[in-house]
What does this fold into?
Amino acid sequence: MSGWKECLRSVRLIPIGIGGSIWALTGGGQSGGLTAALCDEGSDVDRRAAMEVLKRYQESLKEDSVVKESLGESSGSMASELQKIEDSLSTARAAVEKYYRYKARNILDKYYEDMNRKGLSAPAPEKAAAKPSGTEGSAADAPTVIPKKELPKYLTADAAFRDLSEASFPVCVPYVIIGGGTTAWSAVQAIHERDRSASVLIISDESYPPYNRTPLSKERWSSEDDDLRYVDFMGRKRSLLYRYSRQVGDNQRSSVLLNSRVKKLDLESSSIETEDGKVVEYQKLLIATGGKALPVESVHQDLGKDSLQNRVMSFRTIDDFIALDKLVRDPKTKNVCIVGGGFLGAELACALKRIAKFNDIQVTLMFPEPGPLFKLIPRYLSEFLTYKLASAGVKVIPSSIVTGARESPENGDSIELDVVSFTKKSFDTDAVVVAVGIQPQDKLAEDAGLEVDQINGGVVVNAELQAASGVFVAGDVASFWDSALGRRRVEHWDHALVSGRIAGDNMAGGKSMYGFQSMYWCDLSSIGVHFEAVGLQSSKLDTVGVWNLKEPSRFENRPGSFSRNKYESGIVWYMKDKRVVGALLWNMPREALQEARQIIESKTSVPDDKSLKDLIPLPKSKNFLVIGRSDSY
It folds into this structure.
């Protein structure tokens, strides 16, 4: 047993007597049991190793006759003591899981804090200094020399990375990231925080270094600038392109390879090959390929005709934004039809319609479901959104399926859509935006022999976001195990942020586990709607709505008429039997989001629908309404 005691002592957890308290924390005279040891954020305990050692110790304890001799008791008594050890191990597992959920939340909180205090993307431009008399050109034309002590804390990609496109291949890089989105940016930050001398290579098939996609369908449309800036929710100008901490850019140890698609991953040789023949060997690899917009042909193959390619597009990248922006600025464009009634379709419709310069353009939202966001929210709420969108000037055509497309015989610059619906057989438009979702880019991993989730899509990973030895997967393309909700794949920004950071930390030697309930938000502020959601959202689940209304409900006892209410704020709870599995927070204060996370993580059950009204208190209102499961339809 001495060997096992020494092994346990190495992780600062040792048994101190079976007859008394089972575990104590050694070092510095501290005590307080297993939970304190595993949850002490300041300790150097290797938590994963601790768990493995404890499990092995339990197994050896069952076989070791020394235990029986030291106890001097019957086998029944020894079984009782072993049960105490089993209970301690269960406590340890719960403590570790709780710690890493806490750690993941801190990662996101730290990001928001940095955004608010310092800004991780481009800040508002400073007022230019006055030019000396007789100087030609603007102040921006002259090179700026910044003293070393005044170097900015955050660097642009150009300053942080070397361009590897002209390098001689093959090359060997310790850390390689395939993908150029939020996940890649978050991971490279985490790698450099743990390994300050790290050399990282980001390989992206896009023309831009890692950037934030979320403003492309929201705030970016409010900007009058032609660059990649937008005004955030606090009124500050920022860049879509992420910036990097100083340690990432030190001596430009890290590099980027743009406009390069990886065609082959060889796990045995730890190498990848791009389509243009560049070979890169790695020690640790992160697959952050994300998702790709479903092609226009996914709606109907006719939309992919060459004759329509300049006026039919999907929407996901900066290049897509530039193309659509150019199209709506074209004087010939009088009508834009968005096909798809999900988040992207609804946000784009609101964004295009709310900008004054687009007021002369008719924006149409067409989809096969009975209402927008119908797959995610209760029907009465979907119908309420239909009314709000129509009131804002968006032409909403629900329950409509595109069955063909061609150049309009009357106007060669227009498109004629064949439509199956209750009201239309055809529809003429000047441009079509297909916004029907994304598909995870997991084929590279699947071809390499990694396991792919056949139900949710994406690459299957463990709790440390590892798919194979030295290979990690994060972001939209990762299929991970959620201890509260089961195996999932999530396509949201803060999941990309946190999972990228945890994967990057683990690549550099950390032992972080992913246990985070990610959220997403939908911004339809032009129609007075903003909501956040956490957990599972599906119209197939039972829902209970707890609402504050702008005026008393006239339809409380008439199921099917709730869409006529004026919803000011509230929560839609998503239920599996009596357990809460998701929440949608409609115009609610931000602190309610964290409460909803905790409710889902703790697998909260309620006896009946009315019990949900006080689970997270709403702001006080005279006009209060609960729409139970029997009322939703």
Notes: The two ends are 63 Å apart (CA to CA). Residues 50 and 267 are 29 Å apart (CA to CA). The chain is about 25% helix and 25% strand.
